């Protein structure tokens, strides 16, 4: 096991061993134990009482965070010429079709989100090997395959994220920055957790929200008391 760094020891010393913090306390604790020189991401890990191997227990969805993600999201819109102007006006960083498809085939993936239209998916299907492993493949369930590309761009720019449970039953994502106030961090976390609760599969039995942890880049995780998350 690797030795703890000085900052890691300082961070752990500020946490009460075995304690489950309220959501606002956890947000304040994460701010207090983050020592990075850059604006670290605020991460959340929620372990769910589901079996992701069963299709009827797969948890996947989208949420618009009330205070955004705190980062600049680079958006590529692959669309017909008729939709290009509205996509650009909505704030898309890159807009086009064939030229970007060729760039992606060559290995270019310097974007965070790709939005497209249903009629274009036939052309994009061949890019699955490049986009799939990077989580960039457009998907109707995440709202990135739509005829209203302008609206989709606006939502992503405002803080819309998509997520899904992994094979271990954990949903992990970034929901902000440590530079946010503790209240903003709490609000984003609450919105995310409540969205997960709404997506609870009917077939999931027993405890659904098994554990919640907040952390920042390179910080220890702070355990959150699920009961502190108000509906």
From the spread of the alpha carbons, the general shape counts as globular
Order of helices and strands: HHEEEHEHEHHHEEHEE
What is the helix tally? 8
Q: Based on the structure, what is the oligomeric state of the protein chains? A: single chain
Folded structure, characterized:
The chain has 231 residues and is α/β, with parallel strands linked by helices. 30% of the residues lie in helices and 21% in strands. The protein has eight helices and nine strands. Helix 2 crosses helix 8 and helix 3 runs parallel beside helix 7. The longest helix is centred in the last third of the chain and has 17 residues. The mean pLDDT is 92.
What key attributes describe this structure?
alpha/beta; three-stranded parallel β-sheet; four-stranded antiparallel β-sheet; 8 helices; 231 residues; 9 strands
Protein topology:
Elements: H1 6-13, H2 23-32, E1 41-48, E2 60-64, E3 75-78, H3 81-89, E4 94-96, H4 98-105, E5 113-116, H5 121-124, H6 128-131, H7 149-158, E6 160-164, E7 170-177, H8 182-198, E8 209-216, E9 222-224
Parallel strand pairs: 3-4, 3-5
Antiparallel strand pairs: 1-7, 1-8, 2-6, 8-9
Helix pairs in contact: 2-8, 3-7
């Amino acid at each position: 096991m690797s030795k703890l760094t000085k900052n890691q020891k300082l961070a752990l010393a500020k946490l009460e061993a075995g304690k489950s913090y309220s959501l606002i306390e956890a947000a304040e604790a994460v701010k207090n134990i983050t020592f990075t020189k850059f604006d670290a991401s605020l991460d959340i890990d929620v372990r769910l009482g589901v079996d992701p191997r069963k299709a009827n227990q797969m948890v996947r969805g989208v949420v618009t965070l009330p205070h955004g993600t705190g980062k600049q999201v680079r958006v590529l819109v692959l669309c017909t010429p008729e939709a290009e102007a509205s996509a650009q006006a909505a704030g898309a960083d890159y807009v086009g079709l064939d030229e970007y498809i060729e760039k992606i085939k060559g290995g270019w993936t310097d974007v965070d989100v790709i939005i497209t239209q249903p009629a274009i998916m036939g052309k994009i299907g061949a890019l699955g090997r490049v986009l799939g492993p990077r989580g960039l493949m457009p998907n109707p369930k995440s709202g990135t395959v739509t005829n209203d590309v302008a609206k989709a761009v606006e939502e992503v720019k405002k803080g819309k994220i998509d997520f899904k449970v992994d094979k271990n039953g954990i949903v992990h994502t970034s929901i902000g920055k440590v530079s946010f106030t503790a209240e903003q961090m709490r609000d984003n976390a609450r919105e995310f957790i409540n969205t997960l609760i709404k997506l609870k599969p009917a077939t999931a039995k027993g405890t659904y929200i098994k554990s919640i942890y907040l952390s920042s880049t390179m910080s220890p995780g702070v355990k959150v008391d699920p009961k502190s998350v108000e509906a």
